[in-house]
Request: fold
Amino acid sequence: MASSPASPPLSVVPDAYGRFGKFGGRYVPETLSAALDQLERSYAEAVADPTFAAELDSLLSAFVGRPTPLLFAKRLTKLAGGAQIWLKREDLSHTGAHKINNTLGQGLLAIRMGKRRIIAETGAGQHGVATATACARFGLECVVYMGAEDVRRQAPNVRNMRLMGAEVRPVESGSRTLRDAINEAMRDWMGSVETTHYIIGSVVGPHPFPRIVRDFQSVIGRETIEMSRKQFGRLPDTVVACVGGGSNAAGMFYPFVDHPGVRLVGVEAGGRSGDPGHHAASLSYGSPGILHGSLSYVLQDADGQTADVHSVSAGLDYPGVGPEHSYWHDMGRVEYTSVTDLEALDAFDMVARHEGILPALETSHALAWAAREAATRSPDEIIVVCLSGRGDKDAAEIARLRGLTADGSHPS
Amino acid sequence: MTSATTAKPIDKLEAMFAANRAAGRKVLAPFVTAGDPDLDATVDVLTTIAEAGASLCELGVPYSDPIADGPVIQASYTRALDKGLTLEGVFSAAKQASDRTSMPILAMASYSLVFRRGIDRFVADAVAVGLAGFVVPDLPIEESDDLDAACRQAGLALVRLVTPTTPPDRAEAIAKKSTGFLYCVSVAGVTGARTQLPDGLVDRIRWLKTKTDVPILVGFGISSPDQVKAVCEVADGAIVGSALVRRVAEHAGQPREAMLTGVRRFVTDLAAACR
Ligand SMILES: Cc1ncc(COP(=O)(O)O)c(C=O)c1O
Reply:
């Protein structure tokens, strides 16, 4: 983390080749090169065009309901018995998660590029719903690829996507989860790239996606800084977020990376155990490799074949991670750790019962870490958790895992 | 690696193109998935296609997440990996095949695999087992300097791809970098047999010929002798992938000889279309 006066701030990435240090880049079939160049150009033009920001801002406010609040979790803090826990309420965004920040931005880019058909992948279904929502709002055709296992465990989101006119295509190949959904979306794009924009759902994929998604999600961290100053007069001591592909974490962390006094912690899916195949913690257990178009930490075997992964949470059940996280990891700027399935499920219960919020299972990983950490810290320390999404989508699956009946009661 | 100083692996490829050109023939380049149904079968398939008239082979190295491939090749990769295929196994099959036939063999491998093994080691292994070069379908020119330098040093071909979505100035830059031959992708899309070749393909090939001296082979979607013939009117040869992989797969569970007979027949017909 040596930042000598001469070296540029950590936030000045990526470079023109999409590199975050050595990570990132663009490892894709030539068929996609021209579209990625077009996206890069169109994004640069949009950034320079004040009407783009104005349109996005007005959507974020009137359509999404931003800014989302920063809430003091009074009873959770008391229960943990240490540092104050505050929650950045992305669950209150329209569609119930941070994903909408990105899909509206990329939807507007698609319109600028004259592309009227949108494809997306989804794991938890939140990105799929957010994409279907943006497409309904903008009048764009929408196809969402979703692993068949995720179609099962995130059924409410599948229904919601279809209600908004999106076509959901279950993916039966491989592990039938997020990674396979991305493969299928990329294959669709190979054949449709001239008329279709691929709204990737996290800070992953080939350049310029990791940068664009980070930028659209950074509204989370910017609001958090502003509200922290207003509500408790300083920056938090610690900021924590769950990491699947890493978009809610990147959006939360990016505005903080040049504030060295703020400790940043990313929580990956620890699954059942640290044994290969039983978790999805790429930064904790993986090694540098290339997956889905960029160089980053990947869970892989000795040959470079992507490993099987597991998480109770569909949105974290992914063997890779965004390249900027790999950069922050290697620079020592962000700490990455993991939380198991059971710890996440317990945190879900705790936050449901003590705060009256049903958090997403993804988010529950960050909450579990925050509650545990708070217990070891003094009451004048402040931990902010990115509450990335609401957990309605998970309620039925949690009941099933807990052996409860569908209505949440104990079987008699 | 010692032989690299005397005869380069790419020489074999260039000699093959020269011989075909001298004989007024075009080049048939089948694609074969390594390890489907198993590595012994792959060695037999490679020798069989060489006997049946293939001039060159792309040996597909199975990868877990092949985004440029359609269902047929994907499924063959999955079958091979499910049986525990390793890179070590692929290299040893390539060695056995190149001991048995003079047909140049190129590895078609994702850059994910090359990067993981390390460029130097991957290149050294390829030279040691007698491969003539690589096609790396997910490595665009912007990212290829390191592998390019290592291949030039070792005398291996690094075949580049141009596609229908590649703008002209970029296609020219790619053609200039390609060694061995240039791979002209016929369609925008993934691999897989198609009933019709796209409009404008012939014009694209003609234009590409004015931009490079290396031979131009056309692939993706080519599955029949008629399509091979059509492509060979202008290009230097045709690559046939999914259609052959499917024929191998159709014989799953049958005696090895039945599969090889099917492969021999199919490749003989395709090769006849190159005359
Ligand atoms: C609520 C919620 N949080 C987090 C994630 C994980 O994605 P990311 O790491 O990109 O934020 C998801 C993904 O589906 C999600 O729905």
The radius of gyration of chain A is 20 Å.
